[in-house]
Amino acid sequence: MQLTPYRREQVREIIGGGFEIPKRVFETLLDEFSAFLEEDDHTFLYNVHYVLYQKKDIQITQKVLRSIVETFVFLYEDISDEKDREIVKKQFDLLFDTLFIQRCFHSKKIEERAKTAQKILLHTTERLSETIETQELMIANISHEMRTSLNAIYGYLRIIDEKNTLSGEERQFLQKANHATLALKSLVSDILNVTKLNSGQLEIQNEYFWIDDMLMQCIDNIALDLKKKKKISLLTEIPFLPIKVYGDKAHIMEIIVNLLSNAVKYTDKGTIKLQVQYKKLKEGYRVNFSVEDTGIGMTPEQIKTVFSPYSRFKTEKKGLGLGLHIANELTKKLNGKLSVDSTFGKGSRFEFEVSFQKTKTSSVKVKEKHFCFFIDEANYIDNSSRLEFLKKNGAEIYVFHKETEFINFLLTLGKCIPDMVFVTTGVEGYAKFDALIYYLRTLPMYKKTIFIAENIRQHLSLNFFDAMYEHAAPVNVYDKMLNTVKNEYSNEEENVSLLVIDDTETNLDIFKLFVSKRFPNITIDLAGGGYEGIGMFKIKEYDLVFLDLKMPGLNGFEVLKKLEKLGDLPPIYAFSADIYKSNFEKVEEYGFAGLLEKPLQPEKLFKIIQKVIDAKHNR
């Protein structure tokens, strides 16, 4: 049947109350409804379906269906021809069947499919759990093998470097090998970190640490890359904060190193600026870290994908494009947010914030120590908070701003010999004082004095300063360097004995070389496996034990259980290349004193040994 002009007008008014669509579209819908009544086109049905699906609103659905029913009722009552009435009834039945009956059947099928999907999902989850466990085991084994090899390469190169016996071209070869090793170490860490992030195995390792010391370690990590680019200056704005904060130092460092490395990579000239700002909270601090560069910058399209893994892999010659992705994911893990602001051709700025709810005010052991500061007038910096801190801890302070007065003080000393001398000046000034220190070293009274260059903005080659810093020396440098001098002139470690148990000969070799160089008077015994280590422990007393976890025959956990049966134990530290969260938890559960990661980090190792030496000396 066909709609007469009168009926079309009536249908327009009735249906118009239900369909909330533009007038032009509605006129098309009326044409489709007319074609539907002529039994030759079902487009109207499909569009009704689409409108209801698009709106997804119960009230609109009710209006649409009510208007359609009212339209069919009007047509059925207005038509007198029985044949046309049958057509209206037939099309209404079709509409009802399409919109209601078929939908019920469809819902039933969906429900049955959902039950089947749940069974499949449960089975898949079980298989996925097995896969993740297998993956974790595989990555742990890969990690162990790669880090064990890296431990040997890194250790031997460092020992050769510290001996300082190479020169010229051979020295350059050694530096390149060191650089390549650090790059490989960074790459391995990136790949393992991505794996741990994807499997939810990334562990949070909270500890107390000095923020400024952590930042110095970050700068050291990129020093080699930075030296290659002579036209870049590294600027730092780090406030003096003599507070230890409690947080995940390792991962915060990783974020900052990734941001700094990224800045060096995409900056050919200009500056890279590391800035730190902090806000005192009721029970801690909120610290903002930012890295800003004058590099190539990014387009809005690049910014959208900058934190995606491998986002620049196809267009870059070096790297996997994982650094910023890892930094972003680590920031989320630390309940922070990494943001970026960049202008193409001008540079980029990355920043994130971390809250430290626990802090600890730590005094440094500088009582009755003498500190001399020279800050020339052209390079003046505000040093008042640091000087006040040192004075509160019992140090004697001398400050000079004129070069002649400072040099006269150093050359005409009486009984007041400075324990540490800090210099802030310009390029020519540093070179001049480097030569002066060479002379002072020939005088007996200056044999124990430590000379430090601070706030260096350029790449300088200074031979006689004991340490150089991009900005003010970190708080713990006073304890660390004074203790180093103390150890060089004391034999407190003579009666300390160590046992190292590892099945890999190179690991034992590296361990002994590191310890012997730093603590020459310590007795070190080496065991090539678990059974040998237990045998040596039975016949000799040890003050400290380092135990590898992954060994054939008896692993580290099994060795510890057997040692516990022999009586009281000294501190026993595990060391392993398997750095999954589950491994840290297991080490803690078994009662180890701590866990050292491979490749071996000498500074952490020395800290543990020094703690044992101090404890034994103070008994």
User: Based on DSSP secondary structure assignment, what is the total number of beta strands?
Assistant: 18
**Which structural category fits the helices and strands?**
alpha/beta
Helix content: 40-55%
Average the pLDDT over all residues and give the rounded result: 79
Instruction: Please state the second-level CATH architecture of the largest domain.
Output: 2-Layer Sandwich
Shape: elongated
What fraction strand?
15-25%
The CATH class name of the largest domain reads: Alpha Beta
Instruction: List low-confidence stretches.
Output: 485-489
Q: Could you say how many structural domains there are in total? A: 4
* Biggest β-sheet description: 5 strands, mixed
What does this structure look like?
The chain is α/β, with parallel strands linked by helices. It has four domains: about 100 residues, no CATH class; about 160 residues, Heat Shock Protein 90; about 100 residues, 3-Layer(aba) Sandwich (Rossmann fold), CATH 3.40.50; about 120 residues, 3-Layer(aba) Sandwich (Rossmann fold). Helices cover about 55% and strands about 15% of the residues. It contains 20 helices and 18 strands. The strands form four sheets. A five-stranded mixed sheet has the order 2-4-5-7-6, covered by helices on one side. A five-stranded parallel sheet has the order 10-9-11-12-13, with helices on both faces. The longest helix has about 80 residues. The relative contact order is 0.07. About 0% of the residues have low confidence.
